[in-house]
Structure formats: structure tokens, C-alpha cells
Amino acid sequence: MAIELGKLGVWRMSTQLDGAFAAELEKLGYGTVWLGGSPGGDLAIVDELLAATERIKVATGIVNIWADEPESAARAFRRIEDKYPGRFLLGVGAGHREHTQEYKKPYAALVEYLDALDAAGVPKESRALAALGPKVLELARDRTAAAHPYLTTPEHTQAAREILGSGALLAPEQKVVFDTDPERARETGRKTVQFYLGLSNYTANLRKHGFSEEDIAGKGSDRLIDALAVHGDGKALAKGLRAHLDAGADHVSVQSLDDDPFPAYRAIAAELL
């Protein structure tokens, strides 16, 4: 049985999380906290978040396979699973070609990493895979409990669901800005999104799903920013998240780009949870 993530979760850099943050999310009804920023080492932050809460799940989004050996990830998984059974999802991925010197043949490396997790006793139903393209989505379907696409649109979600079938949970990430001023909201969204426009795996995926070279050029067109960082009031943010659910997502991981993320989380919870 795959882990139950709930309808909505929150994606946030692991360095910006603590137990009080997770406890507040749990009170609002969010099902999962996703640890961003390639959290490494022994994943001690996971213990802190789970100790401070009763029901919420914690997932890594993602452990970078080039930065942490599978044996290390497996040891952390076993420790956490022993203390908090059924509340941790080990998400792994290959990161970005531009930022990893050792980035070679990522698909083969992912397969080898999953093989090592198998050997170390990390079960399929307790792991997820960062997946954008068809081949890695198929790998997520066959070898993990969940696919975790990042920086995508409902159009990608629909295509991903067709590939996954019923074989894995689909848990895309969606950025939001809780601001009804379009220009100001786009400025906030663009500060984060423009970083990813220099990474080939994301730009190739965006081209496949309806965006032009003009959309992707420079700091990104308004159309692109509006899609990747949904902005507006609570109803508008909920509509953007619901579009992923309607397209076939089982769960949406929400990343608020606001300085204080909780107004957005509260407004979304009031609409969807």
C-alpha cells in the first residue's frame, strides 16, 4: 500500500523548516511536508518534524543521488521508519546537469540507486522519484510509490498521469504567490522561476508542454510566470491547485514564494481542506 500523502502538502527548503512550522501545517490540514534543497546527511530534520507532529507525513523532495550514497539514505530511512512507521517518504532524484560535475547517464544512475535501495531494504512503497520526462516517469511507476514532478503545469500533470496509469501516486509541485496585484506578484514569482530557466531539464519540459522559446527566454514571459507561480487571492490559488488535481494529480505540493508563507497556506486550506 502506497503512503497516504493527503490532497495537499507544502514544499519548502529544509533549512527553513522546524517542528513548530510543521505543527502549524498539520493544524491547517496539510498532509505532507516536502523537504526541498537536496537535504543530505542523516536527515535529522525529519525526526524533528515528525516528533513535533502526530499525523503529517514528511517526504524528501529530493535527496540528490550524486550527493548521498544509497546506503546512507537507507540508514536514515530505517532509523526514521523505526521511530515513526508509515510517516516518511524517501524521495530521490538526479538533480541538475548544470550543477553536478558527476552528472553522467542519469537514468542508469537512478536505476542503480534504486537497486541499491532495494538491497538495503527500503521498500518501493516508501520511496518517490523526481520525474519529468516519460522514461523517468515510467521508472517512478515501476520502482517507487510516487512521481514528484517539479516546476510543471496541469498539462504536464495530465500527460504524466497517462504514463503512470494507476501504478504510482502523482505529486507535482506548484508555486504560489498570495497577492492580487499582478505586476507585483509576477515580480515575486519571477525571482524564483528565472533560476530554473537556466536548467536544461526544466526548459526542455516546458517546451514540450506549450511554451515557446520567447516564453522561456530571459527572465520568462508573463504567461510562463503566471503558470509556474500562480498568483491571486485564496480562490485563485485554489483554482490553480485544483487544476492539477483535475488533471490527475493525487496530491499537490504547494510552495509559497511569499516572505511569510502562512497567509497563503491558510487561504488555500480554507478553500480546499
TrEMBL record:
SUPFAM superfamilies: Bacterial luciferase-like. Residues 20-161 form the Luciferase-like domain. GO terms for molecular function: oxidoreductase activity. Keywords: Oxidoreductase. It is an enzyme of class 1 (oxidoreductase). Its EC number is 1.-.-.-. The keyword Metal-binding does not apply. PANTHER family: 5,10-METHYLENETETRAHYDROMETHANOPTERIN REDUCTASE, PTHR43244. This is LLM class F420-dependent oxidoreductase. It comes from Amycolatopsis halotolerans. The lineage of its organism: Bacteria, Bacillati, Actinomycetota, Actinomycetes, Pseudonocardiales.
